[in-house]
């Protein structure tokens, strides 16, 4: 009997020692110098503290009070941000923070649930409510290269996922299973609206189905518009490039150059998001209890990364854009003449949209 008791005691001691060792490793992560801290968590120490305070403020809306748990709210935010900003697994994030994988999973989804609360998203995904605010957005866009009256730019960001069992509708135009994320971006790379759909749904279809797209006529003031790539339909609210043909005029080519330069903020925002939240650079692997691809959880991972992106942009905590990542949009090749029909005016439109685009062209 004494041998059994001794073995059990040794086992408990070993487990306690391993937990203490993991805990010391996590403390060393938090206490690193500022440069190392930013490399570890993808943000400045002050930004991390702000995110912790934000999560603490909204925590009671979706979670029980933490109480005397060994892992504080700061620990839970830390493992979540580490998980999102690294290409490794949840097991890697758990190990780095002295937690079991089960505990880390629970804490990550607790924090994600807070970040995706309406009370949080309402603050960090705002559209203007006055003409003056819309004009301020268009003035900022015009500073880029002189393109007038554009308030926002729209485009898609593809995030690869592991193939679901029911894979129909999930394969994007680049022939891999994906989530297609609609990004509506201002000139400062702030995402003003997002919508996550299966990869088989195109950017044009996502705009049509999304709340933003359905309400666009009511949202935009008269004389203002958003810009998109050539896969979108031309309308009074959405201005796209002229179809690329051998007969297009120099003025049309100049318009396309200005329009695409302005619209590039969407790709730049996408690059910023993926560079900081490196989990999005690899196929997402979240799974359901029966082992299928957890596409809803995957969408939540993407959405929480974009919420954090907006928070950090608001704090002026930026990442450099180096275009090192591959093209992750669902945009059609604008240099291919076969795309003319896709890029042209929607047949249901009258001539007003074409006239508006011509008017912008003639102003430059």
Automatic annotation (TrEMBL):
<keyword id="KW-0479">Metal-binding</keyword>
<keyword id="KW-0378">Hydrolase</keyword>
<dbReference type="GO" id="GO:0016787">
    <property type="term" value="F:hydrolase activity"/>
</dbReference>
<feature type="region of interest" description="Disordered">
    <location>
        <begin position="324"/>
        <end position="364"/>
    </location>
</feature>
<dbReference type="InterPro" id="IPR027806">
    <property type="entry name" value="HARBI1_dom"/>
</dbReference>
<feature type="compositionally biased region" description="Basic and acidic residues">
    <location>
        <begin position="355"/>
        <end position="364"/>
    </location>
</feature>
<comment type="similarity">
    <text>Belongs to the HARBI1 family.</text>
</comment>
<keyword id="KW-0539">Nucleus</keyword>
<keyword id="KW-0540">Nuclease</keyword>
<feature type="domain" description="DDE Tnp4">
    <location>
        <begin position="155"/>
        <end position="310"/>
    </location>
</feature>
<dbReference type="InterPro" id="IPR045249">
    <property type="entry name" value="HARBI1-like"/>
</dbReference>
<feature type="compositionally biased region" description="Acidic residues">
    <location>
        <begin position="324"/>
        <end position="350"/>
    </location>
</feature>
<dbReference type="GO" id="GO:0004518">
    <property type="term" value="F:nuclease activity"/>
</dbReference>
<dbReference type="Pfam" id="PF13359">
    <property type="entry name" value="DDE_Tnp_4"/>
</dbReference>
<dbReference type="GO" id="GO:0005634">
    <property type="term" value="C:nucleus"/>
</dbReference>
<protein>
    <recommendedName>
        <fullName>DDE Tnp4 domain-containing protein</fullName>
    </recommendedName>
</protein>
<dbReference type="GO" id="GO:0046872">
    <property type="term" value="F:metal ion binding"/>
</dbReference>
